Amino acid sequence: MILLVSYDIVKNKNRAKLRKVLMDYGYPVQKSVFEVMLDWEKLERLKREVQQFVEDPGDSVRFYQVCDSCRERVQVLGRGKLFLNDDYEVY
Which residues on adjacent β-strands are paired with residue 26? Predict the structure, then answer.
């Protein structure tokens, strides 16, 4: 499945560690948004890893699943490339 993961983490240290974890699963498309492709088992593992960085009441991490038909309609304006293609590596 394809997911967009967005985050807003208050503590710089936790934010940096979270970013490093997400780099193991996908590609950053914005400072706090990643595109990842993984199966259900890996998603559960990712959520467990991410949970340790959600400490502050202001912290938030969101996982948005992108369906196959929606994936075909994703558009990028400006800088950047679309990573949600058939060559995308599943982690």
Answer: 36
